[in-house]
Amino acid sequence: MTTLTQEATVVGITVPTGLFIAGQWRDSQGQSRFDVHDPATGAVIAHIADATTHDALDALDAAAAAQNSWGSTSPRTRAEILRMAYDLIISHREDIAAITTAEMGRPLDQSLGEVRYGAEFFRWFAEQTAHLHGNFGSSPNGDFDIITTKVPVGPSLLITPWNFPLAMGTRKIGAALAAGCTTIIKPAAQTPLTMAFLVRLLAEAGVPDGVVNFVPTSSAATQSETLMNDSRLRKVSFTGSTGVGVRLLQQAAPNIMRSSMELGGNGPFVILEDADIDAAVDGAMVAKFRNGGQSCVAANRIIVHRAIAQEFLDKFVQRTKDLHVASGTTPGADIGPLIDQRQRDRVQRLVNDAVQDGATILAGGHPISGNGYFYAPTVVTDVPESSAIATEEIFGPVAVVITADSDDEAIRIANDTPFGLVAFVYATDVTRAFDAAKQIEAGMVGVNRGLVSEPGAPFGGMKASGLGREGGHIGIDEYLETKYIALGRTRP
Ligand code: NAD
């Protein structure tokens, strides 16, 4: 039985604001809290408990204590809890979407889309639990049997970013719980409320005490270092920037800790000469401006064949100018604010530097004055390939359009980046599109589609974009060890 001691009312909804450790909501040992802001106004909407390293170690104590019993529950027990959690998310979808919009700003309909997408990971992984098969066979010379089985990795630290506060959590939590791992969840400091609400639903769904622990903190680096120094923690799964991913991999090394890394991207959106231009414009609008461009699978560079570049630009720029920028609760809003002032300043610096490098602004190019961190949807062209805006992840509503003279040149530009998360290819000749998709170095390629995310498909990157995959049939393997038993025979 859990007692809720910490709550706030956010947009009329009661949200837990405590830590959740060993099945109890509680305050942090330091009794300290940090503020959560609405990026549309800058106003403080809640104060959430700020976990200390002592709290984090309490969470690890709880996760370690619960590991054996959770790891040995029947697959169907885990499936039913996950399925119940799915149902609870769906029945609370309007509330979750409203909380997400309040703390990260995006339009409500897009938040609702994330809730449905995020919930699907629980349904998907519930369906996986009964299919974790091992193998049985004979050794090649026939003198013993080879048995393989799957066992949970163990207590797992799950660190999530602010840009999809629910789904970046559920695609880790779903896989971890289905595999039989206990968890410590560390949400982004900008958006802890969505996850706090989810954690309460997980408890309601029947997750036993200690299996899900929740430790928001303003001291992410110290917390992860403390936890990862403790050899009881067996896994870290991180979604966020490549720089932090590198640091976590270094911290994972001494204890040889299993690591999954979903990192940054610099997605190319390649439009070949024979593409259906209207379809490419539709796809580019989604790939670039969904979530205000604050997505790891955003189109960072639109690479279009010179022969069709003008027609594409005319249509794309008009559609960009038509986007409605407003707070996420405004009916008809297409784009909300950026997450904070720091991110808005960064986007402006990238645009200014591009102009210095010779780029031309065809739309936007400036912040929107007034409250909140709004930025005008922007299109820039004539961008040198070496400009920071073409080499760094923008994470804002700014489209960079680059022209290429051939398929080969487009593919060369697409691959000219240390990142390899997602790419998009538009062409009417399917063989031509498939050839390009095969040559582009990315973990995911959308062909004639501006959106690839799907719980039933493996999500993840190559090169500096990460290690491992989330979702799909292999997502659960990130939380499983393969164990081999050599079984001797008394007779051949
Ligand atoms: P971030 O790396 O700043 O933070 C991500 C998380 O890590 C947060 O919870 C943060 O508090 C925590 N963190 C920060 N420093 C840490 C440290 N030293 N040790 C441990 N934890 C630390 O990223 P962000 O700004 O929240 O998110 C944007 C980034 O995330 C972008 O680069 C984006 O591409 C990436 N992202 C990737 C995927 C993917 O699936 N590949 C999905 C969403 C976002």
Descriptive tags:
492 residues; alpha/beta; Aldehyde Dehydrogenase, Chain A, domain 1; Aldehyde Dehydrogenase, Chain A, domain 2; 2 domains; 7-stranded mixed β-sheet; 24 strands; 37% helix; binds nicotinamide-adenine-dinucleotide
Tell me what you see in this structure.
By secondary structure, this protein is of the alpha/beta class. The protein folds into 2 domains: 7-263 and 466-484, Aldehyde Dehydrogenase, Chain A, domain 1 (3-Layer(aba) Sandwich), CATH 3.40.605.10; 267-454, 3-Layer(aba) Sandwich (Aldehyde Dehydrogenase, Chain A, domain 2), CATH 3.40.309.10. It contains 14 helices and 24 strands. The strands form 7 sheets. A 7-stranded mixed sheet has the order 16-17-18-15-14-20-21, sandwiched between helices. A 6-stranded mixed sheet has the order 11-10-9-12-13-23, with helices on both faces. Strand 14, helix 9 (277-289) and strand 15 form a beta-alpha-beta unit. Helix 2 (75-91) packs antiparallel against helix 4 and helix 2 (75-91) packs across helix 6. The longest helix is centred in the N-terminal third of the chain and has 21 residues, at 108-128. The protein is globular and about 75 Å long. It binds nicotinamide-adenine-dinucleotide (NAD).
> Which structural class do the helices and strands define?
alpha/beta
Please indicate the percent range of residues in DSSP E strands (runs of 2 or more).
15-25%
Molecules bound to protein: nicotinamide-adenine-dinucleotide
The number of helices is 14
Low-pLDDT segments: none
Mean pLDDT: 97
Helical residues, percent: 25-40%
Strand order of the largest sheet: 16-17-18-15-14-20-21
**N-to-C terminal Cα separation, in Å?**
55 Å
Name given to the CATH architecture of the largest domain: 3-Layer(aba) Sandwich
CATH class of the largest domain: Alpha Beta
Q: In the CATH hierarchy, what is the superfamily of the largest domain?
A: Aldehyde Dehydrogenase, Chain A, domain 1
Total beta strands: 24
Total separate domains: 2
- Rg over alpha carbons: 23 Å
CATH topology of the largest domain: Aldehyde Dehydrogenase, Chain A, domain 1
Q: How would a textbook summarize the main sheet?
A: 7 strands, mixed
InterPro entries: Ald_DH/histidinol_DH, Ald_DH_C, Ald_DH_CS_CYS, Ald_DH_N, Aldehyde_DH_dom, Aldehyde_DH_Superfamily
Keywords: Oxidoreductase
Protein name: NAD-dependent succinate-semialdehyde dehydrogenase
Pfam families: Aldedh
